[in-house]
Amino acid sequence: MVKTRVAVNGYGTIGKRVADAISKQGDMQVVGVAKTKPDFGAALSVKKGFRLFAAACEHYQTFQKAGLQVSGVVEDMLSGCDVVVDCTPGGVGAKNKAVYEKAGVKAIFQGGEKHELVEASFVAEANYAEALGKKFVRVVSCNTTGLSRTIGYLNNSFGAKKVRATIVRRAADPGETKKGPINALMPDPAKIPSHHGPDVQTVIRDVPVVTAAMVASTTLMHLHLVNVELRLKASRDSVIECLSQSKRIKLVEAESGLDSTAALLEFARDLGRERGDMPEVAVWRDSVAVVDNEVYFMQAIHQESIVVPENVDAVRAISGSEREAARSIAITNKSLGLV
Ligand code: NAD
């Protein structure tokens, strides 16, 4: 089998997880990872057997001084790949696009970049086919991915007339000590809609989605309160059955003790998940309620890992190595233990 050669530019929270996930795919190989700083992450990438590249010439020397084996700069990495997954901080990807164009390499960007940068925004279970054969695709942000998964399934089964969601966001990732500590709840932004609703509509175009967001002093997960007005009649059981179709939506019970984001991540660790990750959107079964033609529920998003399976599928879609969404999703799910 000819393997798709994948480079990962930006090896932080998302990049290190994407590189590990790609290396688990039988039809892909990681040709290298690139970073700006010779920190513990860079050293670990070499230990894991990834070829390490410097983001630019000036970084190359810092890596060498730190005694790290470095294989070249980003342009060298791109010359040996079919697809680059850009996992650099938001806004940096836009600057990198010209470099990828020059190298003639297809690129997948992350949710920190704008929809306008790419030809398609991507959530595998919602619009895989849209990314087929494209040159530039964006895997949407963690919150947008979670909303698109659940809204997408409800829309397919019952028709979603409109969606209202409130997003309680984690303030920072666990390792981001520079952003904390804080002791406040902060509207973010203090206007409605937040960008998340319009962002979902770059993936699911025919459903109006209005979101409001606030930041809370936690690092673990985001929490959404979602309300979907349905076109067809639905019962609580039929909604639960609908959401149960996806292995990327995990129905959990508060009653069983999974009653907080902390408990969910404890559960992920107990499951033996790598890094204690939970790439599924966790929907509290207890919270699902149908009132007239509206369904209400609560869901939690593990921001560090939810987009990882999406990036793997985006590689198959953009490279054209697998044209069937269901086949790619099944392979990815199995490789990441989403069963
Ligand atoms: P991060 O800061 O954890 O990692 C970014 C990495 O890129 C770091 O290793 C940094 O050294 C490196 N880098 C910086 N400039 C670079 C450059 N010019 N060339 C190559 N590498 C460079 O960031 P992250 O949280 O992994 O976010 C990456 C992207 O994923 C962003 O678009 C973000 O919005 C998106 N995203 C983040 C999360 C999250 O919660 N962390 C969730 C979903 C999507």
Detailed description of the structure:
The protein contains 12 helices and 15 strands. It has 339 residues and is an alpha/beta fold. The protein folds into 2 domains: 4-140 and 307-336, 3-Layer(aba) Sandwich (Rossmann fold), CATH 3.40.50; 142-301, Dihydrodipicolinate Reductase, domain 2, CATH 3.30.360.10. The strands form 2 sheets. Strands 8, 9, 10, 11, 12, 13, 14 and 15 form an 8-stranded mixed β-sheet that branches. Helix 5 (92-103) links the parallel strand 4 and strand 5. Helix 11 (308-319) packs across helix 12 (325-335). The chain is globular. The model has no long low-confidence stretch (mean pLDDT 97). Nicotinamide-adenine-dinucleotide binds at residues 9-15, 34-37, 55, 87-90, 92, 110-112, 141-142, 173, 303-304, 307.
Map the helices and strands.
Elements: E1 4-9, H1 13-23, E2 28-35, H2 40-47, E3 52-54, H3 57-65, H4 74-78, E4 83-86, H5 92-103, E5 106-109, E6 120-122, H6 124-127, E7 136-139, H7 142-158, E8 160-170, E9 186-187, H8 196-200, E10 209-216, E11 222-230, H9 236-243, E12 249-252, H10 261-270, E13 281-284, E14 289-291, E15 294-301, H11 308-319, H12 325-335
Parallel strand pairs: 1-2, 1-4, 2-3, 4-5, 5-7, 6-7, 8-10, 12-13
Antiparallel strand pairs: 8-11, 9-10, 11-15, 13-15, 14-15
The chain binds nicotinamide-adenine-dinucleotide (NAD).
Nicotinamide-adenine-dinucleotide (NAD) is lined by residues 9-15, 34-37, 55, 87-90, 92, 110-112, 141-142, 173, 303-304, 307.
Task: Tell me the helix content.
Answer: 25-40%
Strand percent estimate:
15-25%
Tell how many strands the DSSP assignment holds.
Answer: 15
Biggest pleated sheet: 8 strands, mixed
Q: Which CATH C-level class of the largest domain is it?
A: Alpha Beta
Give the structural class. alpha/beta
Mean pLDDT figure: 97
| CATH topology tier name of the largest domain | Rossmann fold
The CATH homology group name of the largest domain: NAD(P)-binding Rossmann-like Domain
- The number of domains is 2
CATH architecture of the largest domain: 3-Layer(aba) Sandwich
